[in-house]
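ingest -> fold -> write
write: protein_1
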Amino acid sequence: MSHKESLTKYVGHFIDQLYQSGVRDVVISPGSRSTPLSLTFAEYKQFNIWVDIDERSAGFFATGIAKQTQKAVVLVCSSGTAAANYYPAIIEAAYSRIPLIVLTADRPHELRDVGAPQAIDQIKLYGDYVKWFHEMALPEATPNILQYARNHADRAVHTSQYQVKGPVHLNFPFREPLIPDFRLDDVWGNDAVITQHFPFEETQMTSSVLKGIDQQLHGRKRGIIICGPHDYLDLADEVLDLAEKWQLPLFADPLSSLRHLDGENVVIESYDSILKSKKVRELVHVDFIVRFGAMPVSKPILQLLQENDIEQFIIDEDVTFRNPSIKGAHYIYGKPADIAKQLASLSLSFDHDWLFMWQQLNKSAKNVLIEEQQTLTEGLAVRGIQTIIPDESNLFVGNSMPIRDVDTFWLATDKTINIHANRGANGIDGVLSTALGMATSGKRVTLLIGDISFLHSINGLLLTKNYQLDLTIVLINNQGGGIFSFLPQAKEESPHYEMLFGTPQSVEFEKVAALYDIDFTSVEEWSAYLHALENSYRQQGVSLIEVKTDRNENVIWHQQKWQNIEKHTLTILEEYRNVY
């Protein structure tokens, strides 16, 4: 059998099995050594093929697609540093539990470590950041090897999607010639047996486990339920039901899908602003915390746990230890929505005055946060999006200050807005590309991003030249790294601060927009900002709204808000202590 026939059928069977196992989206960064994979994916004609010439951008673009579809997305690249450029996205996917199937082409074994071009060591290139690595066999078309190719394609899909999602990596050594022959018979393996998987559908805690939890919580009065970032479609409703049945405050992270009016009786959105004060954290005496999802964006939550001995119950789908407080905890494993439902069946009674106190604290903090303000600030930029953003759309939030401002200023709403962010590794890279990946579904995406993050991933805008993607970009331009203004680095008054941390880039973003044929508006006033948002949502394609702010003024404005919230919070806590 010829090399070309072996190559064609080996790759054809592999790719057919990916489709049979549920893959629909493939992101390809073109290269020579990956020709067998790229051409075969295109020839199959059933996949959504996305081409991105920048592998770093492509990796994050794929994470955005996977976030939106909740399905594994394939990445294809050539050998050498092309594969290395996926690394940041793979790290993010590992920590954010995003299913990616990374297919890297490679030189055959005889061309490795001999000075051949584009030949680096790709064996276990991504270390422990992938759930599974496999060096694929050289192509053959014997029945056993064709079934081997299918088995590994199927395994890649299901390993990436169960039980905790994450990336997998398959490395393909290819000898030349690299061009498949699709005129051959049975390229796709039409008579192949399709593997089936039967994953568990629900989790049932035993009666003894439930009884143990009941005993541990018996007599406790002041508990908090926390819902952090997650991607479980059914979790939010079950956690809300648990909080309502137990009548406990529910701290809803902005990435929890719980900041809506249906739960305003128990949902506390302003816990981050309330707990910023160390005095407040010393006065609230929390007996226990039940947490679903990852740790919240809020740093004061972590500080509350670190400064006090609070009994923690952490619910996760598998044996993991997402507990950065480095305190003791009880771990409950299973499908989080099922666990929440079973916990709600326990007949527990807690301090109702405790919930009432948190409702009062939340109401008071929200009144401070929504006070009328004439100047367009970074916090008000969030409120503007919440006011104008269309119902049933997506908001993607950059790291550093944007996600923290969303945590603070995104209050309960009657709109159904899905909020997402790359909170796995908390990096600023690839934010723009991830948002564009989410827009491939056809649903409008709004991206809130800072100027440094935007410039860091600006190559992602190349995708807008080739695909119809509806994205509204709200760009906070404060001439540098605004988050550092809130950190100790800014208080040292070092002569090196601006060079090392402020890092102003002085880019004219109107010219950036012109380069990519993007609609551009720059605003400095509230009414103009709202008008720009309305115009953006009325049109297709990508639009860029630049919001100019001042870093120093932004810090002062935030601090005044937090000081006012602290003052009102301490008053309420004193009243609560005197009355109850």
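write: protein_2
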Amino acid sequence: MFVSSQSKSAVRLDQVGKKTDEISVEISTRFLEHFSEQLYSSPQKAFEELISNGWDAGASNVDVRVSSDLYSPAATLSVLDNGVSMNEGGLKALWHIAFSAKETQSVAYGRPVIGKFGIGKLATYVLANKLTYFCKASDGKIRRVTMDYGQVQNEGSEDKLVSQLGLDIFEVTETELRAVVSEISDGEEILKLIEDGIPAPELEEDDDEFGAGETSFDRPPSGTWTLAILSDLKPSGRELKIGILRRMLSTALPFGSEMAISLNGEFLRSSKMDSPVLREWVIGPDLEFSEVRLVKKNAATDDEDENNDSEAHEDATEVIPVTFHSSPEPHAIIDGIGKITGTVRLFEDKISTGKSETRGASNGFHVNVLGRVVNQSDPSFGEENLSHAAWARFRMAVRADGLNTSLITNREQFKETRQIAIFRAFLRRTFNLVRTKYDSDPDAGLSDGGDLLVKALGVISLNPLRSIVSDTLANSAAIPEMFDERDLTDRTAANERWRSQTAEDISNALGEVRYEATGDDEFVKFRISDSAVVVNNKHPFVLEHSKKAEKELIRTFAMVNLLTDVYALEQGVDADVLKGVRDYRDKLLRYRARQTRRSGHHIASLLLATQNDHKNHKRLEAVVTDALSYLGFDVTPLGKPGEPEGYADAFPYPTRVAPTANNPNPPAYRVTYDAKSAKGEASKTGNLSLDGVNEHKERYNAQYALVVAPGFQDGAVITRCGQLQITPIVAKDLGRLLEFTAKYGAIPLTKLEELFKLYDPSMVSDWVDHLEDSLQSDNRLTLDTFLESIQRLRKEVPDALSASLIAHICRRELGAKEVQDRDVVSLAKGLAVIVPDLVGTDEDKVIINASADRVAEAVNVQLESLSKAADAGK
């Protein structure tokens, strides 16, 4: 229950300091209401105005703080930057409404100026009742000004102009500053930053996909700073979403080596698209056109081809020349717009999936003006009728500072000018180029798959598919896993459409064969909505045959599998029988993928090989995922921007967690994991983003969090890991766990849980050391005993061996009195990790594909190679 609309800290912010001057402000309530509520699309966007001021002030570090509980009466939002601050004259200029000294200034401190309208600070009206500035200018004095929006509301009616609104300027001592700032959210951290001079961290430079070239940043003298605090929050301010703000700042503001932005202590990095790229163009000579066409109003429809050379089309359009240049960086020049830079990428998979409200649009046009992405809410930039297949895989990051003159006040939208119309034509022309390349790329899809089959096999080959799909739409799928029925809202209408299309031309029954993530474990599905055969690009067998030369073969293989199953159903094969066949086939595919993929030794070696491969960090992430899978976890890889690399669930038997209606199969525990490759031997706090790792743990309801790196720097890293309860493990120690699995069998998941309760890398290493000792002493079945039992049984039992029979031989003939079935299976699984070609398991059966001597020799070779790789990685 709120006891007051003003918090203790808000009152103190108003009272501190000695008055030295006064600012006269004229502003109307109507203007404030219209400006704040209509001009900005979200509370995050309004708050961003305060943050972007640091760029124009020449700041190298901007620290943003958002209260963890925005519904608390004491909640605040604050922004601290180390740019040039304001003296009394500067504060008066700040509150000169609708005037900005930046309006005629295009560059400040070597950076392009973002602000120009002089009203951005009024966006905060929608967020809070009070906005307070503390400024330390070059004269060394600290000054305070507080805008009380409530005073404007009280003194002015809906139409009334509030004249001579007095804003007092106060001088504040350092003692007074500490007293009030310590009361706001994260106040002690803010004060510590000020005491330390608000140093900018050493961040690695991000690749600039907008390609604008380096600016000549001229860092102003240090010692100045500005702290803006929003207090007495309004409902809109309390609805600010920190996740959306983080995503917005990671995509919309200019930062990197020149300006660092941190949010609640976590330094942000540019959002990256890590999906495989099919083809890439740099805006410049890479683009294969020399003009764009501006369609005159009402002269042509959006669907007309821009490349139509008919006289009628020539008369209806205006040709705009485009020239491309390579120096000083690749760029295009269009009269009226000027220099345009950036990159265009066509991805192998769709990048348009996911909740855009939380992670932002990935595909589309990303238009950057003066260092800010200005169209986050409109990735199509007003264009319509864009091809879905290519559009979902298309990303164009384009910087055009010349569009600044067409920006409206909120800097999110543009005036409909000739300049914008020409720019849209340029975007459309570029997308058409990419779409053409996509449609003509034989590796992008096996187009007209149905037509190819009809020509090769005859009309009858697709009749079973037509029949089974029609039955599925009319009733339900006999085997639901075979079909993707999403996007079907009216099944009756869809069935009528299907019958009509396939009656006219049987080849319409089968469209493209595509690689996509299906979101489940199936190898291949038929998607009814567009007649596509969808190959699951996350299936292990597909992953192991993902080279370009193999893709067409896998497409054909998947299509044949699907159509064979459809034929079996149409011929009357019982659905349960066919399910068993499909399950068996899938096991074979997965087993073959495991054989050809990586042994435990290979994974351990790759951990050492990829830990310092900083430029290809995704490699280490993939290896860590494999390592956790081999240790027995049920792993769900994620690896998207703003997400952990994945999470690993432990399902020991029996479970210790009670099921619920929402989670009927809960794991005993969950671990989120992140992998951090580094150029050197030890990772630093800033590189690890430990606060982000902790946020991942909380978001995925995990009990533990794991970070894998080549090493960890002593001091702050270890302290922070302890505070957040994050387990740091060096890549070498994770590799040793794989070695133990091979030597002694699977490590119990209940035992591995001990590891995640350690928060110091040296303690983790000690635990791994002691683990081997305990495995040796607790192991009732040694590798020698196991192999000897195989040697004695091999001539007697030529097929798969039961675990109970092997255990019996160990007890009766080899003196291992306590060996049980589960010990045999555990050791066999461990051997399957390190020599998967020779040893495998199938439930309680052990499969041996070589003599005992051959298995022993292979194990020794693998372990010896692993030891050498570990020594080389030291």
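write: annotation protein_2
The chain is about 40% helix and 20% strand.
The CA atoms of residues 729 and 735 lie 10 Å apart.
pipeline exit 0
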